């Protein structure tokens, strides 16, 4: 499961690493959502995920992961319980320029879901905007929860992020 706030790169992450053409449920954003959604200012995003993104990757001959990207807007969060059912683990994708967009996802996995999770800071523009220790403090992450960086556009980086999640989930089993 790939979770996080609006516009943090969840759809991009699924698409960058999927071995099959990803299935997206993107819809055009309209003025009707302005009063409901907290849209980041200055963004150029014209679509939003309204159900899920889906992809698949084989990490090795015996391990195939099915990837489910969650919608980032709060009005679609009711889907998260269904998307997390049976999940091996979750990646909370974060953008440190808008870290507050990650609080709800971290809270969900810490308090409302038994699914193990890691946090991956998406390196927009190839740059880490804040020190990972500061990010951990801001998100109030427990020390045992992995916090890493990734580039959601890069398949090798995304695959390594998934491997980190699998190793962490196995360590808890």
Automatic annotation (TrEMBL):
GO terms for molecular function: GTP binding; hydrolase activity. Coiled coil: none annotated. It comes from the Bacteria. Pfam families: ATP_bind_1. Keywords: GTP-binding, Hydrolase, Nucleotide-binding. Signal peptide: none annotated. Belongs to the GPN-loop GTPase family. This is Putative GTPase. It comes from Frankia canadensis.
